Amino acid sequence: FQAELKQKETGQVLFRGMMRALGYAKNTKPFENLADRMPLNFIESREGLAPKQALLLGTAGLLPSQRRPRKFAREQEVQELEQIWQSAGKTVETMKEGDWNFSHIYPNNSPVRRIVAQSYLLERYGKGKLLTEILQLVKEAPLPGGHHVLENSLTVAGDGYWRDHFDFDVRSKTKISSLLGNSKAGEIAVNAILPFAFSWGKLANEAKLTENAIELYRNYPRLPENCITRHMAQQFCLEEPPDLTACHQQGLIHIFRNYCREGRCSQCPLIN
Known about the structure:
The chain has 272 residues and is mostly helical. It has 13 helices and two strands. The longest helix has 23 residues, at 182-204.
């Protein structure tokens, strides 16, 4: 984040980081690509939720008319997105459906729903305010317990069409879970928002922001386990760690990627 902040616009660095976190773990690169093609300042200049959704989904190449087999929407909400895209997105270099990974992904975690969730967040924070609001949240979050504030600010329930659709024309028989629940909100906070806020605070000499970001990070409760954290917990006999935090989990992931996976067991700091 510090390297990117020296080269790119501050809000775009935050937006790209949030998009990257939305793509974990199988769509990281496509989400970064989408953020680069449809930058924050352009999206925030469009008023209303539907234009934001249309531009993001259209640039991603994931509207029904862009996919195979090509479909034409019947529902009014989807027709509106298609019409907005046709009138506003002709100059944008779009991605293709094949750029996205849909394999072995729970329907509720599909890239389409993640992109829609981001449109809700952008609409929630208003024109030009995502950066300001997110930094303010970190700076003012109480200690302890500030993780609740961050997660509540990032969760998206969804309404209308997305209350019962996993994707375009893929409908659930029952009401489905939030577009962005607490677990994913926690991942975005730990992997994007807190390291971004810390990095920006360092560069801007914002001591309060830097201090709050690192304290929130150090005390952030554990996130849902993944295959790497489960494997590493077993390696270190931590099957039932009562006080494992998100920071500890990221430490395990760091050790796995930099030592275990690279075969550098003799250099691992935990053998000393």
